[in-house]
Amino acid sequence: MRISIFVCCFALNIILLASMTKAENGDLVDQICKKTPFYDLCNSTLHSNPLSPKIDLKGVALIMVNNILANATETLSYIERLIKQTSDRGLEQALAFCAESYIPIVKYTLPQAADAISQGRFGFASYCISDAMKEVSTCDKRFSGSTQSPLGDRNGFMQKLVDVASAIIKLLQG
Ligand SMILES: *[C@@H]1O[C@H](CO)[C@@H](O)[C@H](O)[C@H]1NC(C)=O
Ligand SMILES: *[C@@H]1O[C@H](CO)[C@@H](O)[C@H](O)[C@H]1NC(C)=O
């Protein structure tokens, strides 16, 4: 009898605790995303990751940067696939130009931004993020002109994610 009451209450407590931290995380995500230029994108990106119950602003910034890294990595392999497939020389050159933008983002800029956030060097993180933003728009501009950009949507999505990350890092900088 005593054991079953104990087990019952223990289980109930876990459920209560779990729903509480979930709600608190939801609040934190909501509060943070409201301070970014793209609420829905911020909210859906953060909710698509498992958030630890003790997540804080720094943890949220890290998740966002790692998400951008995953997306940039995917876009880079997409660019490399397109380069192999196309027989249009102009397009091939433009894609190669964009690969040159995405390679440093994937290899250095975003991993450095993540490290900097972990180490509390938010100024440097902010610098890395604006560097990534520049690289993406450099790639995007390469297509402005005659050629229809096969990367327009992806670049646009990246730019929004980077804008969101930049706003979150500004919050960290206080
Ligand atoms: C945030 O995202 C979650 C999960 O996708 C969703 O359930 C919730 O309604 C969103 N919040 C707002 C205010 O849109
Ligand atoms: C990256 O962004 C595109 C939208 O341009 C999306 O379709 C894709 O699922 C994302 N990939 C990752 C790994 O987040």
TrEMBL record:
It comes from Lupinus angustifolius. This is Pectinesterase inhibitor domain-containing protein. GO terms for molecular function: enzyme inhibitor activity. The keyword Signal applies. It comes from the Eukaryota. Gene3D superfamilies: Invertase/pectin methylesterase inhibitor family protein. Residues 24-168 form the Pectinesterase inhibitor domain. SMART domains: PMEI (SM00856). Keywords: Disulfide bond, Signal. Residues 1-23 form the signal peptide. Belongs to the PMEI family.
